[in-house]
Amino acid sequence: MNIDENFLSPSCLENRDFSEAKKYLKNKFAELADDSLKENRHPEHCLLVALDVAKCIRAGGGKPRLLLVEGQNTDSVNTETLAPKRYEGRVEWGGHTVCENDGIIYDPMVGDPLPRELYLKNTFLKPAQAKISMSSEELEELIRRQ
């Protein structure tokens, strides 16, 4: 899913160079075309990918954070699984970690960065919800310790 640059928040692009993050997204998008499961696992772990993206965004002057994306609540305890449109229902997850900066989600599974609401509405077969799993301050500390 490629989105025109006009959809991006101006605050996201102003005085920042996220070219490394965009290059990473483009390369990883191509790698993720193979949705086959190897040893019952997807070939990439979304948390590690989100951390890589966050490092690129920080290098470009951003203050990224990590979000946990989940399906909609089915009751007070359970949520629906996530089925990415890209994989046409062949893959389902209980949750998915992505990097967000200034309301824009950077997920190589979809290619170009997307505004949060558009991402949550259009990336999966059913609309999703997201919550902060790691604030920008916590993420900065984690990256600093590596």
State the share of residues found in helices, binned by percent.
Answer: 25-40%
Strand order of the largest sheet: 4-3-2-1-5
Portion in beta strands: 15-25%
| Annotation field: number of helices | 5
Task: Determine the mean pLDDT.
Answer: 83
**How can the largest sheet be summarized?**
5 strands, antiparallel
| Helix and strand run | HHHEEEEHEH
Structural class: alpha+beta
Task: Tell me what the structure shows.
It contains five helices and five strands; from the N terminus they run H-H-H-E-E-E-E-H-E-H. The protein is an alpha+beta fold. Strands 4-3-2-1-5 form a five-stranded antiparallel sheet, sandwiched between helices. Helix 2 (19-31) runs antiparallel to helix 3 (46-59). The longest helix is centred in the middle third of the chain and has 14 residues, at 46-59. The protein is globular, with a radius of gyration of 15 Å.
Short description:
The protein is 33% helix and 17% strand. It is an alpha+beta fold. It has a five-stranded antiparallel sheet with strand order 4-3-2-1-5, sandwiched between helices.
Q: Could you give the topology of this structure?
A:
Elements: H1 10-13, H2 19-31, H3 46-59, E1 65-71, E2 96-101, E3 104-106, E4 114-115, H4 116-122, E5 128-134, H5 136-145
Antiparallel strand pairs: 1-2, 1-5, 2-3, 3-4
Describe this protein with a few key phrases.
5 strands, 33% helix, alpha+beta, 17% strand
